[in-house]
Amino acid sequence: MFTSRFAFRPPPLPDELLSSWIQRTATGMLFLPYAFVHTYWQSEPPVLSRDIDLLGDPRVIAGMAVGTGTNPAVAASTTLTAFDGRLFADCGARGIYPWVLPVGVRNRDRKLPGQQYCPHCLSSDERPYLRKQWRLAVMSVCVVHSQVLLDRCSRCASPLMPFRSRALHVCWNCNRDLRHAKGQPPNQDAIRFNALADDALHAGWGRLGASTFHYSPILFSVLRQLGRNIISGPRSQRLRTVLGRQTDISDRPFNFEGGREEVEFLSSAERHRMHALIMALADNWPYNYVSSMSEAGMWHSWALRDMRSVPFALRTIVDQGLRPRTYSPPVEEVRAAARYLAKRRIGVSGRDLRRLIGDSIHTQEALATIAAPTLAAELEPPEFVSLPQD
């Protein structure tokens, strides 16, 4: 590890990503980003062959801290692991980090549009840079400028690749100035979702209707499951249709980037639509959630589909509101049914009763009251119980 300072020593800007910080440092020293990284950290193991913002290399973080004279803790906060304990819990090595957009690094290229940006923010920056929140799937709206975030070049549709760009506000492929891209006005429900997410990220807790989540990763876990119910699964279309009748949001199927049907693999426009639908589903929590899910026939097993760790706050609501109720005829109804059958034949069995009125916890009790006690426990055919006539 080198111990000398860089010739150009910019500190990280507020909410700046590590990749953005490295790119600004490299260009300030008249380096290409790849040449800068290779010069100071060599290439074994390769630094830029993975998502450096998510899996921040300790060598690079420590080197940037030393080279720019930045506090090591501040340098470490430029990676997405800074959201551990606020967006997700137990950050570790796994295929998908909840609510973190993948960039699909392959041979130093980015195959997925996981880096979002706001043209207005880049235009207003004295030194354009990329924010950490722009890598989060809970964000689809710039909370400052109220514009839908973009995730591709507006001219050539290429995903952003900071290390291939001559500047952070320039497309690496066609050299278009990203600051000139035109954003779309956001959906009001999606704005509310983004405001909810932004508040929870900063405070570490949040509210959903009358429910208070004192640990924000639990809130985000619940919101993610609602999103998964909406975007994929055999009954998701039913749920989208129900929500579409409540709002003006399209219920068309979702298109995924990268082949995985998860909330992190949606384009910014599709996630924006998902955010609006999630907020519609969560309105007046949990009452609209239960009624909409019930109307769509999305019961307990569908609501919690593929959710490995179910928060108590969600399980309680699902157990109480989304378990189909089974009707059990009362004892008086069972007795009346038995007498009805007895009037039309010489006997009645437990099977006859079940065929007529369904299963009941009172079947045995009813038979014991009106039939011979020794035959009351007999609930299965083929014998019949002769009943006294009224």
Automatic annotation (TrEMBL):
Organism: Phreatobacter oligotrophus
Pfam families associated with the record: TniQ
Protein name per UniProt: TniQ protein
InterPro entries in UniProt: TniQ
Domain TniQ: 8-149
